[in-house]
Amino acid sequence: DAVDAFTAAIAAAPPTLDVRIDALAGAAVSIDGAPAGLAPLRVPLTAGPHVVVVRHPRYLPQARAFEVRMP
Q1: How far apart are CA 38 and CA 47, in angstroms?
Q2: Please, which pLDDT band fits residue 70 given cuts at 50, 70 and 90?
Q3: Residue 6 has pLDDT above 90, yes or no
Q4: Which of 7, 10, 14, 41 is the most buried (most CB within 10 A)?
Q5: Across the chain, which distance is largest between two alpha carbons, in Å?
Q6: For residue 52, what pLDDT is reported?
Q7: Positive or negative, the Cα torsion across 12, 18, 23, 25?
Q8: What is the DSSP letter of 57?
Q9: From CA 65, how far away is CA 6, in angstroms rounded?
Q10: C-beta separation of 33 from 11 below 8 A
């Protein structure tokens, strides 16, 4: 039934943790090479290593590598 299908879908989805990126307002943010939006923003990330790159026309790009660990 629908409840069982929903429960199975939730169980199959990898857990995520919301990560907040508070870069300069309007800066373009990419995560793992994919555009994520404009700062500031909050994005769900799966456990494991990630790379965030922040770009703004007035500043040099900044990149940070980090690892998300689930509590």
Answers
A1: 22
A2: confident
A3: no
A4: 41
A5: 54
A6: 96
A7: positive
A8: T
A9: 34
A10: no
Given CA atoms 5, 11, 13, 19 in this order, what sign does their dihedral have? positive
Distance CA 27, CA 36 (A): 11
58 Cβ contact list (under 8 Å, min separation 6): none
Q: Are 29 and 54 in contact (CB under 8 A)?
A: yes
The predicted-structure confidence for 30-39, as pLDDT tens digits, reads as follows 999 999 999 9
pLDDT band at 14 (very low <50, low <70, confident <90, very high): confident
> Is the CA virtual torsion 54, 55, 59, 62 positive or negative?
positive
Structure tokens at 65: 């590598």
